[in-house]
Amino acid sequence: MEAKENEVTPRVICFHGAIDPYVSPAEVDAFKKEMEDADADWQFVSFSGAVHAFTQKMAGDDPSKGVAYDEKADARSWEYLKVFLEDAFGES
Hints:
92 residues, alpha+beta, two-stranded parallel ribbon
């Protein structure tokens, strides 16, 4: 059976370091617009104080370099992801 146009709604979750120097506010806005245009079921979560690669322990611990591990943002993003996956794939 073939899927008909607009029969599948994409689900997307995006985690973002609020002070990530590698992703501009314009890029964030463009991403959100793209999700809206796709009629996606999307979430965008921005973590204060976090920079790029905040879930990667190997990124180090110096946010001034633009990439750094952030334990609190990592833990919080993991909890958000578990809820997202339960909603998408869990039993209803």
